[in-house]
Amino acid sequence: MKKLDIFNKNFILPVKNAGSQKSMRFFMGMLIVISALTVFLFPARLRGEDAADSNAEGAVRILTDTPGLKVYFNGEAEGLAHPDSPLLREYLPAGSLIISVRTGNNEKKSQTVNILPGKTQEVYFRFRAAPAPPLPEKKPSAPDTAKDRPIRTAEDLLRAGDELFQRERYLLPKNENAFEMYRAVLMAEPENAHARTKIFEMIDIYKKMEKKTPEGDLEKRAYYLEKSFALMDYTVKQMKDSRWQKEYSETGTQLKELEMRLRQSEALCKEGDTYFIAQHYTTPADKNAFESYRAALEKNPGNDYARKRIREIAAFYKNRGDKSLEKGDNANAESYYRQYLPVGQYIAAGFGNRAERQETEKISRWLLRKETTDNFLSKAGEYAEKGQIVSPEKENALYCYKEVLKNDPENAKARTGIQELLRDAYARAGNAFESGQYEEAGKWGELYIKISDRIPGHQDILLPGAEREDIRHLLRDVEQHLLAVNLKSLHSRMRDNYETYRKLLEKEEKNEDVSHEIIPLMKAIIGNLEQIEDIYLHFPGNTAAEKTEGENTADIPEDMEEKMKRIRTLRAEMEQEVAIREGKIY
Predict the structure, then answer these.
(1) Neighbours of 329 (CB within 10 A)
(2) Which residues of the chain are modeled with pLDDT < 50?
(3) What does the DSSP assignment read for 516-548?
(4) 3-state DSSP assignment of residue 451
(5) 122: CB partners within 8 A, 6+ apart
(6) What is the SS3 assignment for 68?
C-alpha cells in the first residue's frame, strides 16, 4: 500500500484572479476530487450474501469517460464508475437488466444487457463536456511580474479551506484541498487557532470513518487510518502539538498491523495459487489451496480473490460428484462429495450463503444414507457367514438387507444378497433331500419359506416363480418321509411289545402272577397305537398314500380307513382290559 505523501510537495499559492481557463481547470479538479472521495466515503453497497460460483452467473463492467458516474441496475443504485476505475460487478445471475447512469443533471440508459454465464459484458457511457466559452480578447500588456500578481491573504486561504472542508475535500485533490489551505495559513501564522482546529476536526472525521467501517474491511480501514495518521504526523512534527503524541503512536502501530495482515493475506493467496495450479485443492493436509485461501481470509476477511478461489474449489468437487452420481458411480461420487463438503460448509458459514448451505445439507444426508447402507451391507455379509440368516432379532442377514431396502428400494446389493440367501436355502434343501437327510432338508426348506414370507413387496422381484412352490412340495415330501420312518419304528416296537404281551398271557394261563408286568406293557402298546393313528391321520387322502421304499421307510397301508378302524378297536379293547386288571389289583 502506498503511503500518502502530502508534505513533501511544493505548495503553489493560487493567483486570486487567474481568468476563465484557470477557473475551468479548478472546476475540473473539483470534479476529480469529488469522484475520488466518493469512492472512499460512499463505497458501492455490499451484497448481503455471497452467491456461489456457478455456470449460471456472469459479470458486467461499466466504463466511462466521466468521473463519479452513478450506476443503477434496473433502477437500483449499484455504485460509482470512473475513467480510471471502471465499476465491476461479478456473480450476477444470468438474465437481462437495464443499466442507467447519472452525472449531475445528465442521465443515460443502456439497451437491454444480457448477462451470459461465465462471461463479462462491458458497457461504455460517454458524456461530452460542453465546449469552453471563448476567451475574451486581451489587449497587449506589459509582461507580468510578481509584484503585479495579487497575493492571497490568510483570510482568503481560510475562506477557501472552509469551503473545501464543507465539500469534504479534506486531503484531495492534491494542492487544492482543505488541508493544503490550512497548512498554508499555518506556515505564515503557526498559532492560527481556526486552521489548527480544522485540522484536528479532520483527524476526528477520519477516525470516526475508520470506526464505522466493518471490522473485516481491512483495506478501507487502512485507508482511513492512513489519512488520520498523516494528519497526526503533521500536528506532532510540524505543529509541535504533543496532545496527539500517544494517539499518533497507537494509530501508527495499528496501521502497520493492518498493512502487515494485508501483505500476509496477499502472500497466502499466491501460495494458494501454487497449490491450485497443481490441483492440490484440499490435499495433502495443511499444504493445499483451500487451506491457504482460508488462511488468507483469516488475515483479511475482505479478500475477494480468496473467496472467489474457494468457491471455484467447491464448484469443482460438487460438479464432479454430481456427474459421477448421474452415471451411477456412487464410489466416485462419494469421494468427490467428501472433498466438497468441508469447502461447501465453510462457504455456507463464512460467506453466509444459503444456497450453499442447502447443498451441503443435501449431500450430507446422501453421504449418511450411503454410510448407513454400506454398514448394513457389511454386517449382512458377516451374519450370513455365521449362519445368522433370520435370527436373532436385528442381528441377522435378512434384517440388514431389509433396512437397506427401506431407504433405497432399488439397491442392487441388498436385492442380490436376499436372492443369494434364497438360492442357498433352496440348494441345501434339495441336496439334503436327495441324500436322504430329510430333517436337514426340512430345516433348509423351512428357512426358505421364512425368508420369502418376510420380504413383502419384493417377492415378485426377488423370488423365482417356481422355487417357492418347489420348496412347498419338498416340505410335503419331507414330512411324508419322516412320518414313514417314524411309522416303521413304531411298527417294529409294536411287534416287539405285542410278542412280549403274548408270552405274558401264556404265563398267566399257567397261573403265574405277571400282573405287575402285563399292565405297564399294555399301556405301552396303547401309546404305540395312538402314535400310529396320529401318523395315519397326517398322510394325505383317506385311502392310500404312495408306498415308499428304502431302508429308512416303512410300508404305508393301502386301506388306511380300514386300518384306522382296527387300530381304534384294538386300542379300546386294551384300554378296557387294563381298567379291569387295575380293578382286580386294587
Answers:
(1) 14
(2) 1-55, 129-133, 144-149, 542-557, 585-586
(3) HHHHHHHHHHHHHHHHHHHHHHHSSSSS-PPP-
(4) helix
(5) 60, 61, 63
(6) coil
- Alpha carbons 417 and 380: distance in angstroms, whole number: 8
Classified as helix, coil or strand, 62 is: strand
Q: Which of 369, 357, 370, 360 is nearest to 340 (CA)?
A: 360
Q: Report helix, strand or coil for 100.
A: strand
Transcribe 380-449 into DSSP letters.
HHHHHHHT-SS-STTSSHHHHHHHHHHH-TT-HHHHHHHHHHHHHHHHHHHHHHHTT-HHHHHHHHHHHH
Residue with cell 511580474: 145
Q: How far apart are CA 447 and CA 444, in angstroms?
A: 5
- Which DSSP helix (H) or strand (E) runs through 502? helix 465-509
H helices, E strands: number in the chain: 17, 9
Question: pTM of the full predicted structure?
Answer: 0.51
Separation between Cα atoms, residue 583 and residue 586, nearest integer Å: 5
Q: Are 524 and 501 in contact (CB under 8 A)?
A: no
Q: What is the largest CA-CA distance in the chain?
A: 182
pLDDT of residue 294: 95
Q: Name the helix (H) or strand (E) containing 265.
A: helix 245-277
Fold annotation for 43-130: Immunoglobulin-like (2.60.40)
DSSP state of 75: T
Q: Read off φ and ψ for residue 167, nearest 5 degrees.
A: -85, 10
Scored b (16 or more CB within 10 A) or e, 113-143 reads: bebeeeeebebebeeeeeeeeeeeeeeeeee
Question: How far is residue 119's CA from residue 125's CA, in Å, rounded to a whole number?
Answer: 20
CATH 2.60.40.10 segments of the chain: 43-130
Give CA 293 to chain center in angstroms.
Answer: 19
The answer to whether 40 touches 205, Cβ cutoff 8 Å, is no
The predicted pLDDT at position 584 comes to 54
Give residue-wise pLDDT tens across range 228-281: 999 999 999 999 988 889 999 999 999 999 999 999 999 999 999 999 999 999
Distance CA 470, CA 476 (A): 10
Give CA–CA dist 84/158, Å, rounded: 32
User: Which of 264, 262, 281 lies closest to 273 in space, CA to CA?
Assistant: 281
For residue 165, the tally of other CB atoms under 10 A from its CB is: 21
Q: State pLDDT tens for residues 362-392.
A: 999 999 888 888 888 888 888 888 888 888 8
Taking the C-alpha atoms of residue 460 and residue 457, their distance in angstroms, rounded to an integer, is: 7
**Taking a C-beta distance cutoff of 8 angstroms, is the pair 78, 44 a contact?**
yes
C-alpha 152/C-alpha 168 separation (Å) is 22
DSSP 3-state of 119: coil
Q: Evaluate whether 321 touches 341 at the Cβ level (below 8 Å).
A: no
Query: CA 296 to CA 263: how far, in whole Å?
Result: 10
Phi first, then psi, for residue 70 (nearest 5°) are: -80, 130
Phi then psi dihedrals of residue 332, to 5 deg: -70, -35
Rounded-to-integer distance, Cα 191 and Cα 210, Å:
29
- Residue at 566: amino acid letter: R
Q: For residues 419 and 452, what is the distance between their CA atoms, to the nearest angstrom?
A: 10
- Cell numbers given for 549: 421304499
How many residues make up the chain in this entry? 586
